[in-house]
Amino acid sequence: MVQIYKLALALSAVCVAPVIAHPGEHHDHHAIKREVIARDQMASAAKRSLESCSGSLKHRQLNARSVARRAAAARDLRAKRDIKTLPQKFRRDLATLEVYEAINHNKTGILDYSVSTPEDTVFSANTSCILTPANTDGPYYVTGESIRQNVTEGQAGVPLHLEVQYIDITTCEPVPEVYVDIWNCNATGVYAGINVTGNVADGGWDSTFLRGIQATDSDGVVTFDTIFPGHYNGRATHTHLLAHSNITVLANNTISGGAVTHIGQLFWNEVLRSAIEATYPYNTNTQPVTSNADDMCSCI
User: Fold this and answer.
1) Gap between the Cα atoms of 64 and 73, Å rounded
2) Does residue 83 carry a pLDDT above 60?
3) Per its UniProt record, what SUPFAM superfamilies does this chain match (predicted)?
4) Structural domains of the chain in order of their starting residue, each with its CATH number
């Protein structure tokens, strides 16, 4: 089972010239729906889940460490970006104040959280997926990416801190030393490392933005700093994940050998996606948006 913790920070992005997005992949939507049904059946047939582990002391300790780690990460990210936890009051003229007060500034309304919501409520949310037979890796997987935590490379977009945790549902134990490969398109729908019609990244074959690998730690956790992905025609907004085991780390900070134990994709909450795509440079993307319901099985 995989737990996913996603922290997107809506910040002003560095402006760069937008690039033309590729036309997207081609999919048989009937096949996709059949795949969704098969995945639902696989998930419902699973004998164990994280909830069945919740009574064990080890799992309660693991969860407590997860809450503390996520809360600390959120505080650290806010501090680095000078995001104040509590609002500051400034002198305003009456007209400015009336405009300000007419706007709903609650950023957590969809979860019914407030500034007084306990951290163990916010950061213990269980967004979990039982790993079913592998999803497609898509046509834009590239081998030989570097082991690194920050994959942004200056790409404009909403900063995203992504945490993924692997748990063995047969033992309720975390899975360490899994090398997790992530990749996604940039804010305008372009992937690095490829050079095909409609998808021409700056740097072409040599570009590496928004791609990287990290190994899970003793708690089965891997984290990345990236940006919230854009979209392209025919696919819902998504981030790719690929898990490797028994690999060899090479001198050039890449991996070799081993086995691919899972291929999957993360799909994103539609409310969050819509809010982000209203900002620059996402709003320069003119390609049609595909919803989660019209794409593959999502874990959001």
Assistant:
1) 14
2) yes
3) Aromatic compound dioxygenase (SSF49482)
4) 31-128 (no CATH), 131-294 (2.60.130.10)
